[in-house]
Amino acid sequence: MHDTSYEHGRLFFEVYWQAGFQVVVDLGSQDVNGSLRDHCPPEARYVGLDMEPGKGVDLVVEPGAALPFADASVDVAVSTSAFEHDVFFWETFLEMVRVIRPGGLVYINAPSNNDFHRYPLDLWRFYPDAGIGLVKWAAKHDVPVELVESFVAKPGAEGWADFVAVFRKQSDKPLPPTGRIADRTTATNIFSGSAEYLEAEQRQTFEALEIADLRDSFAQAQAQASRAAEEASSLRARVDQLSAATETAEAELREIRASTSWRVTAPVRRVSDLVRRR
Predict the structure, then answer these.
(1) Domain housing 262
(2) What is the pTM of this model?
C-alpha cells in the first residue's frame, strides 16, 4: 500500500464512520506496507479478503467469485489498490453493493495514473467520471447506489494519483452530514452528491502538469545559458580588443625608445626627474 492510499483510507474512516456500523469487509486486504484495518475502529468486525493467503487475509476468494456474505449483511465494504488488477472490477463492485445494508458505504481507492505494475495483471486506470459510470452500471442491474463523493488526489512521494470514491446504498435515511475526504486532502475533479459539475476541474494529469513545469524550467535555464554565452562572447571580444590595443601601444613605445630623439633627450629627462624628486 502506497503513502496516499494509506492516508486516504484513514480519512475515509475518520469522516464517514457511524456509531451503528459493525461489520467491515476489505477486498484486497493483504497487508503490504500497511492495511486499511489499521484505521478501522477496534469495536468493528473487520474481515479481510484476498485472492491468496497472507498477512491481513481472513478469507481467500477466487477472482470473479461471489463474496461469501449474505445480501445486506455488511455495513462497509472497502477496497484500495485492487480494482486496477481486477479483470471484472464492475462485477466486483456489484458484489460489494449487494452485501452492504441500505445506508451502508462502499469505499474505492484505485490509481488514476502511474506506473504499470502487474499483480498478476495491471488492467485499468480510473478517471474522474469513473464513479458515475459505476453508479449507472449498478442501476442497470437494479442495485440502487449513489455516489457520495469522488476525486483525484495529488500524488505523494511515491507518485500515485489516487482516484477515491465513496458510494452509499439507497436508504430512506439521509447520510449524516460528516464532511468530505476531498476537503482534507489536495484534490481535483471533485464530484459531490447530486452536483452536475466537477469542482476544481483539471483536464491534465498531475504528471502532465509536472512535465510542463519541468519543460518551462528547462526552457528558462536554456535561455539563461544562452544569455550567459552571449555575455561571455562579448567579454572575450572586448578582451581581444584590449589585448590588441595593448600590443599596439607597446610596439609604439618600443619604437619611441629606439628613436634618435629619445636618446638625445635622455639627459634632459634625467635632470627633470631629479628636480621633481627635490
Answers:
(1) 209-272
(2) 0.79
